[in-house]
Amino acid sequence: MIPVVSKLPQTGTTIFTVMSALASELGAINLSQGFADYDCSPELIALVNKAMKEGHNQYAPMAGVMALRERIAEKTEKLYGAVYNPETEITITAGGTQAIFTAISAVIHPNDEVIIFEPAFDCYAPAIKLMGGVVKSLALEPPNYRIAWDMVKRLINQKTKMIILNSPHNPTATILHKEDIDELSALVKNQDILILSDEVYEHLIYDGETHHSMARYPDLQQRSFIVASFGKPFHATGWKVGYCMAPAYLMNEFRKIHQFLVFAVNTPIQYAIAEHLKNEENYLGLAEFFREKRDHFRKGLEQSRFKLLPCSGSYFQSVSYRAITDEKDADFSIRVAKEFGVASIPVSAFYSKGIDHHVLRFCFAKRQETLDKAVDRLIRV
C-alpha cells in the first residue's frame, strides 16, 4: 500500500449514513436522515419527463438553465425585495452541499478563520479545513440555541474571513430573529467579513414567523453567499439540485470553482423546476404542509417522556430525554433504534467536541402513518 496522508484525519462516515444504515439493518422506522418517505409531485415528475422528451438531455449552461435562474430571481425579489441578476448572480448547483463547498473553496485561504455555530451541519467544518482555513466554533445551548453575539464579537480578529449562518437551523429547528440580524449587521459593519447563509429550509417557517434571509438586508446581501435547495421543499432530495445567489464579484469567484466540480447540473430537472416554480403555491404552501406534520408529530410525542424543544422551522423536531436516562445520546439513539425500532440522530454529532445535552433529532417529513407508528413506539421508551 502506498502511504497516504489524510487531509481529514479526524473525519469518518457521517452520522446520517451510519444511522440510516442501522435503520435499514434493523428494519427500524428511519426518522434520522432528512428525506421524505412519500413521492414528490406527480406534476413535477411529468414535467421532468416532458423536458426529456423535448430533447433537454445534453449539458446545461455552466451557470444553469436561464429559465430557472430567472424564476429564482423573480421569487427572491417577490419574497425579499432583493434584485439578483440571473446572468451574473445566480448559479444552479448539484444540491446545497455542493454550493456550500464551492463558496468556501472560492474565498477561504490558508489560515483564514471562519466562525460557525454548533450544533452545525456537518459539511461546514471539513470544507473549511480542506482549504487550510481555521474553524472557530461557538457552541449554542438548548432549549433555544440562541446566538450570544457578545461571544461572537470576541472571536472576530484580523484573520476572520467568513461567518456561516443556517436558518431555519439544522438540527435544532430554530430560526434567526430580527434582533440577530441587527447584531450581525453591527458586527460586520466596516469589516471585510463575508457571510455564507445556508437557507435550504427557507420555506419551512411556522407560527407566523419571518424568514430573515440575508437577501432582505442590502448591506448583508452585498457580502453574502446565499445557498438554497429544491430537494428539501419538493420532496426530491435524490435529485440534488440547489442554487447559490451572491453579488457578481463573489459569484465570479464561485463559478471559477463550480465549473471544475460539476460544470453543469441535471438539465431536464432544471427545466422542470423552472416550470414548477411558475405556480407560487408550490413553494408558498409548504409551510402549512409541514406545519401539519410538525403539529401531528408533536401532539403524539406529548404522550411520551421526551421533552419537546421548540420547532420554528425546518422539518426536524429535537427532544430532550433527560427525564428518561443519563445515557450518552449516541448510545441512547442506538438503543432506541434496536429496542424500539425508531432511528434518530444524536445531536452531539453536530458538535466538534461532541457536547452532549441529551438531545435527539427526529425528521417529521414522513407520511402520517409513519409518524403514528413511530410515536406508538416512542411512547413506550
Automatic annotation (TrEMBL):
Q: What is its EC number?
A: 2.6.1.88
Annotated Gene Ontology cellular component terms: cytoplasm
**Necessary cofactors:** pyridoxal 5'-phosphate
The family database entries (InterPro entries) matched by this protein are listed as:
Aminotransferase_I/II_large, Kynurenine-oxoglutarate_AT, PyrdxlP-dep_Trfase, PyrdxlP-dep_Trfase_major, PyrdxlP-dep_Trfase_small
Domain of life, per lineage: Bacteria
Positions of the Aminotransferase class I/classII large domain: 29-378
Q: Which UniProt keywords apply?
A: Aminotransferase, Pyridoxal phosphate, Transferase
Q: Which GO terms describe its molecular function?
A: kynurenine-oxoglutarate transaminase activity; methionine-oxo-acid transaminase activity; pyridoxal phosphate binding
Q: Which family does it belong to?
A: Belongs to the class-I pyridoxal-phosphate-dependent aminotransferase family.
Quote the protein name from its UniProt record. Aminotransferase class I/II-fold pyridoxal phosphate-dependent enzyme
Task: Specify the species.
Answer: Mucilaginibacter rubeus
The opening ranks of the lineage are: Bacteria, Pseudomonadati, Bacteroidota, Sphingobacteriia, Sphingobacteriales
